[in-house]
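Need residues for this backbone.
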């Protein structure tokens, strides 16, 4: 066959914090005789992680007002009781180690004049427990330290092969449904490669780009989730899409730069153009859980109001020092926070659901793992507590490495008939699709359909409309096996994931957390923090453990 074949001890797909940290820990374990392949669809440093602002949860002994039980209670309360108590507890307990190990990897968390760690606050946290880097550049700070370590540490770098601009397009399953590796597509050379390993981990991030307005960068198109859906892995909680309440809303622009929740944590307040500070009547005011704030802003905007953040409560000098990137970005867009309010609106931000996994990333498919935002460990339930996601990336990646290094990681090239048939489809050179449709236009259609119908407020009618529109797009783009470009693969994947989210939203008829059904009877009872009634079969009823 004209296609290249390669074997490794492990294949890591994705170079966000989950993928990078897994690569470092696996390389450090000295249990990867045939090396690690890290493949990533864009540049090594491009991912959601890079843009994280607010910080990472650190439940640290030195932070005396905090405790594991407080963090567990906050997480489960924000998640409306749909979190897995054991997972939450485990991740919380492992936070101290995760933070210490990140520091050992070269991450410099912000400190005060006494050289003590600075803790900030975000929505639904009962105490200050969030660590940050560079003020509002936490993701960049962590990602940079991990990339430096991966590339420059002499005990790590030789064990890791990095493929950039390379997309995993299909999981290689054998006739017993064991994962044997992936097929990759280099978007620059258009070459396919069959990659084999005893262990494959999807660290492919979330789904934000499926929506018209999102805080996520353009790479975040749900690709890993789509691979898992195609391979019939179990998927969970996809109806729970988190809309961040405060993205910078500029007229004549669809892009949505995040204005961190920690800006409200440090004192900023939401206000409408009539000067009404409309969150003041809510139990936790401006720091209510994200789903609550996002719905209230949505409601303000639907009434024709404009919504702003009033940062004057923070103090100008403090703001400039504490949020240098936000200050700079606002200024570049002619918003001078020394005299202007910041115009904000909600935007799709995080996918609570994903590939169903245990804490160590184990999926329902043998040899296939998923970690980070692509996975659903059930830490977040129906609504993620701010800054829990980076922590989950690190803890899960660590546990993944702990698990797989107990097995033999000598590479093997197992090619049975099923694997061979898959490879053949990519090896044939004569059937490259010629696109007779506009990929950019179809992507934009998906984003519009999802924003308008599967957004902050949903009804059965809007969800059925979405499904019908998505099916029409499917008819134009007939879900081809093999695509001719990265863009076309992204379109294929976005469509699959969009349908998955819509179907999940249709099947959950009541409102809970980030999933708000305007046609649900229970909404008359509780709009502020809707939910708690229906549970999926496989969700333990943890709301009863910590109520
Ligand atoms: P990502 O960082 O998204 O990385 C995914 C990687 O996979 C990318 O490299 C991508 O190119 C690659 N990839 C995807 N599919 C494929 C494929 N098929 N083949 C090859 N490569 C592929 N969380 C917090 O806890 N605290 C915060 O302060 C915070 N702030 C945020 C601010 C913003 C603006 C955004 C967008 C998110 C924020 N989040 C925050 C959420 C958090 O950043 C993400 O959930 C987390 O970084 C996800 O990390 P990850 O490693 O799972 O995925
Ligand atoms: C933010 O800084 O507001 C984002 C934090 C998060 O998504 O966890």
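Answer:
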């Amino acid at each position: 066959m004209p296609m290249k074949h390669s074997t490794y001890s492990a294949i890591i797909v994705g170079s966000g914090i989950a993928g990078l940290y897994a690569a470092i820990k696996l390389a450090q374990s000295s249990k990867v005789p045939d090396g690690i392949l890290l493949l990533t669809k864009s540049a090594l440093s491009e991912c959601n992680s890079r843009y994280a602002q607010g910080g990472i949860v650190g439940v640290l002994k030195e932070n005396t007002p905090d405790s594991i039980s407080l963090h567990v209670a906050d997480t489960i309360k924000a998640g409306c009781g749909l979190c897995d108590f054991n997972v939450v507890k485990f991740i919380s307990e492992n936070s101290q180690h995760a933070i210490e190990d990140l520091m050992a990897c070269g991450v410099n968390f912000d400190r005060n004049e006494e050289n003590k760690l600075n803790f900030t606050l975000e929505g639904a946290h009962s105490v200050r427990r969030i660590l940050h880097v560079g003020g509002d550049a936490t993701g960049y700070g962590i990602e940079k330290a991990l990339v430096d370590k991966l590339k420059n540490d002499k005990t790590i770098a030789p064990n890791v092969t990095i493929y950039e601009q390379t997309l995993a397009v299909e999981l290689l399953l054998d006739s017993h449904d064991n994962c044997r590796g992936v097929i990759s597509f280099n978007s620059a050379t258009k070459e396919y490669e069959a990659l084999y390993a005893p262990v494959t981990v999807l660290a492919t991030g979330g789904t934000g780009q499926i929506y018209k307005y999102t805080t996520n960068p353009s790479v975040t198109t749900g690709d890993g989730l789509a691979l898992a859906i195609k391979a019939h892995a179990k998927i969970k909680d996809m109806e729970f899409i988190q809309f961040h309440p405060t993205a910078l809303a500029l007229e004549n622009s669809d892009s949505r730069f995040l204005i961190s929740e920690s800006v409200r944590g440090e004192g900023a307040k939401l206000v409408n153009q009539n000067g009404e500070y409309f969150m003041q009547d809510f139990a936790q005011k401006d720091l209510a859980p994200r789903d609550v704030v996002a719905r209230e802003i949505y409601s303000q905007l639907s009434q024709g109001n404009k919504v702003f953040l009033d940062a004057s409560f923070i103090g100008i000098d403090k703001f400039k020092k504490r949020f240098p990137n936000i200050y700079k970005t606002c200024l570049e867009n002619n918003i001078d926070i020394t005299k202007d309010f910041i115009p904000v609106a909600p935007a799709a931000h995080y996918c609570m659901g994903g590939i169903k996994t245990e804490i160590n990333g184990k999926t329902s498919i043998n040899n296939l793992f998923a970690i980070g935002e692509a996975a659903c460990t059930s830490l977040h339930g129906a609504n993620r507590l701010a800054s829990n996601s980076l922590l989950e990336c690190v803890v899960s990646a660590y546990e993944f490495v702990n698990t797989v290094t107990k097995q033999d990681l000598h590479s093997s090239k197992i090619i049975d008939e099923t694997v061979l048939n898959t490879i053949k489809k990519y090896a044939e050179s004569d059937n490259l699709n010629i696109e007779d449709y506009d990929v950019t236009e179809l992507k934009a259609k998906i984003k519009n359909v999802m924003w308008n119908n599967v957004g902050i407020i949903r009804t059965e009618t809007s969800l059925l409309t979405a499904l019908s529109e998505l099916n029409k797009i499917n008819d134009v783009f007939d879900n081809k096996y093999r695509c001719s470009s990265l863009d076309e693969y992204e379109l294929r994947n976005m469509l699959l994931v969009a349908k998955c989210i819509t179907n999940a939203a249709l099947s959950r008829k009541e409102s809970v957390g980030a999933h708000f059904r305007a046609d649900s009877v229970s909404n008359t009872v509780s709009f502020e923090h809707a939910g708690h009634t229906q549970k999926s079969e496989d969700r333990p009823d943890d709301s009863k453990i910590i109520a």
